[in-house]
TrEMBL record, chain A:
The lineage of its organism: Eukaryota, Viridiplantae, Streptophyta, Embryophyta, Tracheophyta. GO terms for biological process: auxin-activated signaling pathway; SCF-dependent proteasomal ubiquitin-dependent protein catabolic process. This is F-box protein FBX14-like. Residues 15-26 have a biased composition (Gly residues). It is found in: Nucleus. InterPro entries: COI1_F-box (IPR041567), FBXL15_LRR (IPR057207), Leu-rich_rpt_Cys-con_subtyp (IPR006553), LRR_dom_sf (IPR032675), Transp_inhibit (IPR041101). Keywords: Auxin signaling pathway, Nucleus, Ubl conjugation pathway. The gene is LOC103719084. Pathway: Protein modification; protein ubiquitination. PANTHER family: F-BOX/TPR REPEAT PROTEIN POF3 (PTHR16134), TRANSPORT INHIBITOR RESPONSE 1-LIKE PROTEIN (PTHR16134:SF36). Residues 150-436 form the F-box/LRR-repeat protein 15-like leucin rich repeat domain. Residues 33-72 form the COI1 F-box domain. Coiled coil: none annotated.
Automatic annotation (TrEMBL), chain B:
Residues 1-81 are annotated as: Disordered. It comes from Phoenix dactylifera. Aux/IAA proteins are short-lived transcriptional factors that function as repressors of early auxin response genes at low auxin concentrations. Gene3D superfamilies: Phosphatidylinositol 3-kinase Catalytic Subunit, Chain A, domain 1. Pfam families: AUX_IAA. This is Auxin-responsive protein. Homodimers and heterodimers. The keyword Transcription applies. InterPro entries: AUX/IAA_dom (IPR033389), AUX_IAA (IPR003311), PB1-like (IPR053793). GO terms for cellular component: nucleus.
Length: 606, 211
């Protein structure tokens, strides 16, 4: 018997699996079928990729059930695509959950607070359904201390917690996790926003078990408040399995040295401030020598980050580990090319490099000269405004493309760029999977020819045949989008801002990019007729975001009516009145759960 | 506000070739900046400005920036630009970590606690010191001809306000123009005068460092 199919096709992300699932209720299968299912389970347990699993679940009812019983990791790309109850009813033996909430533009303040993505209903459902849960990874979810508490009390075997770009919790929640999760191996807090009242901070570092811990990874560089350093030192001392430690900027370089001495086995280190906290005049030479020796003893280090307040005289201390580094994050280090050069010169094995544009084109040239194995580069602006000084430009981009032929992923913020440089990169770096170029001045053309940046981005989609993620910027006409639609056949994620001339641009993309999953657009002149051009595709996508475009309620309503399994949210800014016809922010996504019941007043679901 | 800028930018886009988006325009068409302009060096400023600590007039500050010979592109455009929400797309965590955070810690030699002040709310050194006086209420400010010192009336110990700048050097408060001080000050320390002799005395050039 074949499982009935809906209009929603399967893709890698599945929002919880195939559509119209039937939980596994009904009469039990006959004995021989049961045997077959047991055999099937034994086989299917080896399937790890969720794409493969989704496909297997569609073969027939028997396979559907067997797959559901053997899926250990549950990936929910959009927490509103399926209800917690439905997910936990279908997949009953899950040990690890990945859950993503808000759309990415929330990171840039485009979504008002309290929009949603609450962890609460999920943790409640999981607490009941998955007593043996070991891992939770949340991205852009709203997590309360109470949720962390429930987590800590509900899962006796809990091992790994990763919170990425989450908000709503505080050190009080961390304290409960530390205290109650006795088998904790991983506590990774990455770019979260902690609610912490200066007067009510919790000494969470002291709450870890006093016996030897199983901690392998402790990442808290985003925690704004200082931790109890003595407790941290003691924790590191009794955590022999610790391999990854990223401390926050309150940890001084002297304190760091002490931690490193206690944990020479570290592979990943976030250095905190890397500056001196001492109120006294720094002792200069002695401190650096000690630090060099400490780094020299850390023979396993492959990943360095932090450097939040880096004092340049301490930088040479990392020379001993440079040759082993595969990943270096200098993106908070305000250093010049002169300061970068002696470090990067040694980093022959570097694959991931994040840096600030303070190193300028010369710094990037130095990177290109040494880091022949570079796979990922991110260049961030020290002054993220439209009118900051030129520091990196087309020159740096070309240098990187010529030196780092294996580049797969680039994020590059700049004030000026040329088509020629982007074309050059498209030819030199054929392995590019992710190309994100942010020319910070809106509508800015090629600074030499004054032409739009159409040809550059066109070359990227044409020449980089593996491209899956693209962010465009600068002055762009509809032509750029014609290129994207024509050549961007593998593109799954597309970010557009301040670009295009007319509806045609969006049409090209919706009609051409057959693998498009995630489309986020802001401040571009696309209206209802373009929106309606994508009706054939929206069920294949995780979401569409459009803000400050030319959409009207009428157009959005039509989409909502024609596609009943799409949730169409119109989001107002808090202090705006009901705008009538004009839609300022549209967020729409396929869902098995129907309109959500937790929408705040400024969200209208059509 | 984002509504307005969104609409206006899209309207100019519809007209196609118009680069003169007036309210958002920054520099030359094509947006090219004068790449040669170097970031301000504090020593350059100190050389051009002679500062007396007491009674520093506020109106100096905008003037300071124009006395240097750099192309105006090096400084920020004086007119308030229309800010677009969320552009450029840099996460607030990163923005907050990188921006010149004007909150600095204030330490007092011998006191076990630290306080924090936001330098941006003060108009100049005078106000800052008054605030410190309020904060560490045991102090009174004593005026010397070229300096201010804070005095603990209980034991008569004198404290000199010092600060650590971005380069890690410890300087006497008051050496550089106020704005430059705000930009470069990382922490304040009220140092006992007896220890402060190690710091170089104030010179017209200002920014010598002690080692």
């Amino acid at each position: 018997m074949r499982e009935e199919r809906s209009d929603m096709s399967e893709d890698e992300d599945g929002g919880g699996g195939s559509a119209k699932s039937r939980g596994g209720g009904g009469a039990p299968p006959p004995f021989s079928d049961q045997v077959l299912e047991n055999v099937l389970e034994n086989v299917l347990q080896f399937l790890s990729s969720r794409g493969d699993r989704n496909a297997a679940s569609l073969v027939c009812r028997s396979w559907y059930r067997a797959e559901a019983q053997t899926r250990r990791e549950l990936f929910i790309g959009n927490c509103y695509a399926v209800s917690p109850r439905r997910a936990t009813e279908r997949f009953r033996r899950v040990r690890a959950v990945v859950l993503k909430g808000k759309p990415r533009f929330a990171d840039f303040g485009l979504i008002p607070n309290n929009w949603g993505a609450h962890f609460h209903p999920w943790v409640c459902a999981m607490a009941a359904a998955y007593p043996w849960l070991e891992k939770i990874c949340l991205k852009r979810m709203s997590v309360a201390d109470g949720d962390l508490s429930l987590l800590a009390y509900s899962f006796p075997n809990f091992k790994e917690l990763s919170l990425i770009c989450c908000e709503g919790f505080s050190t009080a929640g961390l304290a409960v996790i530390a205290e109650k999760c006795r088998h904790l191996r991983v506590l990774d807090l990455i770019e979260d926003y902690l609610e912490d009242d200066e007067d009510e901070m919790s000494d969470w570092m002291s709450r870890f078990p006093e016996t030897t811990t199983s901690l392998e990874s402790l990442v808290f560089d985003c925690v704004g408040s200082a931790v109890n350093f003595e407790a941290l030192e003691a924790l590191v001392t009794r955590s022999p399995a610790l391999r990854r430690l990223r401390v926050n900027h309150h940890v001084s370089v002297e304190q760091l040295r002490r931690l490193m001495a206690l944990a020479p086995q570290l592979t990943h280190l976030g250095t905190g401030s890397f500056g001196s906290a001492a109120a006294a005049i720094p002792q200069g030479g002695n401190n650096v020598v000690d630090l060099v020796n400490t780094f020299a003893a850390s023979k396993s280090l492959v990943c360095l980050s932090g450097f939040r307040d880096v004092a340049p005289q301490y930088l040479p201390a990392i020379y001993p580990v440079c040759a082993n580094l595969t990943s270096l994050n200098f993106s908070f280090a305000d250093i010049s090319a002169e300061e970068l050069n002696p470090v990067i010169r040694h980093c022959h094995n570097l694959q991931n490099f994040w840096v600030l544009d303070t190193v300028r084109d010369e710094g990037l040239q130095a990177v290109a000269a040494t880091c022949k194995d570079l796979r990922e580069l991110r260049v961030f602006p020290v002054d993220p405004t439209e009118d900051s000084e030129v520091s990196v430009s087309d020159v740096g981009l070309v240098a990187i493309s010529e030196g780092c032929r294996k580049l797969r992923s680039i994020l590059y913020f700049c004030q000026q760029m040329t088509n020629a440089a982007v074309v050059t990169m498209s030819k030199n770096c054929q392995d590019l999977v992710v190309f994100r170029l942010c020319i910070m001045g809106r509508h800015r053309p090629d600074h030499v020819t004054e032409e739009p940046m159409d040809e550059g981005f066109g070359a990227i989609v044409m020449n980089c045949k593996k491209l899956r993620r693209l962010s465009v910027s600068g002055l762009l006409t509809d032509k750029a989008f014609a290129y994207i639609g024509k050549y961007g056949k593998l593109v799954r994620t597309l970010s557009v801002a301040f670009a295009g001339n007319s509806d045609l641009a969006l049409r090209y993309v919706l009609e051409g990019c057959t693998k498009l999953q995630k489309l986020e657009i802001r401040d571009s002149p696309f209206g209802d007729s373009a929106l309606l051009a994508g009706l054939h595709h929206y069920y294949n996508m995780r979401f569409l975001w459009m803000s400050s475009c030319k959409l009207s309620v009428r157009g959005c309503n039509e989409v909502a009516q024609r596609l009943p399994h799409l949730v169409v949210e119109v989001i107002r800014d808090r202090d705006e009145d009901d705008d009538g016809e004009f839609v300022e922010k549209l967020y729409m996504y396929r869902s098995l759960a129907g309109p959500r019941t937790d929408a705040p007043p400024f969200v209208k679901i059509l | 506000m984002s509504t307005d800028t969104g609409k206006s930018s899209t309207e100019s886009e519809v007209s196609g070739l118009d680069y003169e988006e007036t309210e958002l325009k920054l520099g030359l068409p094509g947006g090219s900046r004068i790449a040669g302009s170097e970031p301000e060096k504090k020593r350059g400023f100190a050389e051009t400005v002679d500062l007396s600590l007491a009674g520093e007039p506020r109106s100096r500050d905008p003037g300071d920036r124009s006395t240097d010979g750099l192309v105006s592109g090096a400084g920020k455009p004086p007119a308030a630009k229309a800010q677009v929400v969320g552009w450029p797309p840099v996460r607030s965590f990163r923005k907050n970590a990188l921006k010149s955070c004007t909150y600095v810690k204030v330490a007092v030699d011998g006191a076990p606690y630290l306080r924090k002040v936001d330098l941006e709310i003060y108009g100049g050194y005078q106000q800052l010191l008054t605030a410190l006086e309020d904060m560490f209420s045991c102090f009174t400010v004593r005026n010397y001809p070229n300096e201010r010192r804070l005095v603990d009336p209980v034991n008569g110990t004198e404290y000199v306000p010092t600060y650590e700048d971005k380069d890690g050097d410890w300087m006497l408060v008051g050496d550089v123009p106020w704005k430059m001080f705000v930009a470069s000050c990382k922490r304040l320390r009220l140092m006992k005068s007896s220890e402060a002799v190690n710091l170089a005395p104030r010179t017209p050039q200002g920014s010598t460092s002690a080692r």
